[in-house]
Write a structure and sequence with these properties.
- This protein is α+β, with helices and mostly antiparallel strands.
- It has helices at about 30-40, 80-85, 120-130, 135-140, 190-205, 210-215, 250-275, and strands at about 5-15, 55, 65-70, 90-100, 110-115, 145-150, 165-175, 175-185, 230-240, 245.
- Helix content is about 30%, strand content about 25%.
């Protein structure tokens, strides 16, 4: 390439057990490691620092993504399917944009959109816990706006400011499944999973609504385990108008075919146990 051109790339990944999160690490496999290996194999990358390779967001082990973003100054004009051909099917690039050289996928992000799927059916929650969906929604609405989220995040002494602004928290019920969207410019470590954990405790009547509100009091530190990472998806990251993603049709088709095939693998088991619970079909 005659001069430096920086790109942002969108990618999906499904966080299988073999991956130890998204952030690159030594001696274990991560999403970043897999992407870097593919870029090096296809001669797009030699030195990570010189190429300004950077992910916009880090995700924990078992967290998946539909619209993660990373930056790269490639050694040649990128062909997404050439890169994808060296990636496992659970990882894939599917869109790209040329961006100003000074842009960072992390620091120029205007918003990050995460989606959490509660891993059990609403009807099961209602049967086992007398689940209060209305109270769950009422508590979730309190998370919107500017708050100190110290008690909704993993304790980290390197982070001095635990105040964040949640632009949107929305609860859906789709096909007997609770889905929650969270949108903010930035999140603290494990923030979404810890918010989910406390929302579930409210819905299950394990803590009161007032107990939930008391967690906004940062003068008292509260420790507890977060909800499972397996229901969490990094859905989308938005930027200003100087970042305009072009969808590569073949790469998007590869992504969608993989999603469909994985859905079919789980379909028979789901239907089998659904049928076992019924006496007849008349």
């Amino acid at each position: 390439m005659p001069s430096k051109i920086k790109y942002f790339f969108k990618l999906y990944y499904i966080a299988k057990e073999k991956y130890y999160g998204s952030q690159r690490q030594e001696n274990v496999l991560t999403i970043e490691n897999a992407v870097i290996d593919a870029l090096k194999d296809r001669k797009y990358l030699e030195n990570v620092e010189e190429a300004e390779f950077e992910f916009a967001s880090r995700t924990d082990r078992y967290v998946s993504a539909r619209g993660a973003v990373f930056s790269l100054i490639p050694k040649k004009e990128p062909i997404l399917m050439e890169i994808n051909s060296f990636l496992p099917e659970e990882i894939g690039l599917w869109a790209y944009s040329k961006v100003p050289l000074e842009y960072s996928p992390r620091f120029n992000a205007l918003s990050r959109h995460y989606r959490y799927i509660i891993p059990v059916k609403l009807s099961y929650l209602s049967f086992k816990y007398n689940f209060n969906l209305n109270l769950f929604k009422k508590a979730s609405a309190q998370l919107e706006g500017a708050h100190d989220f110290q008690n909704f995040s993993k304790r980290d002494d390197s982070i001095e400011n635990t105040k964040r602004t949640l632009d949107k928290v929305k609860v859906y019920v789709l096909h007997d499944t609770i889905i929650i969207d969270f949108i903010s410019q930035a999140f603290l470590r494990q923030q979404i999973r810890r918010m989910i954990q406390k929302l579930l405790e409210v819905g299950k009547n394990e803590i009161s609504y007032n107990d939930f509100l008391a967690l906004f009091d940062a003068s008292k530190f509260v420790s507890y385990q977060p909800a499972s990472p397996k229901g969490l998806i990094l859905w989308e990251i938005k930027y200003d108008s100087r970042v305009s993603f072009h969808i590569d049709e073949k790469s998007a088709e590869r992504r969608d075919n993989y999603f469909f095939q994985e859905e079919q693998k789980s379909w028979l088991q789901y239907k089998l146990f659904s049928c076992l619970q019924q006496d007849n079909f008349s």
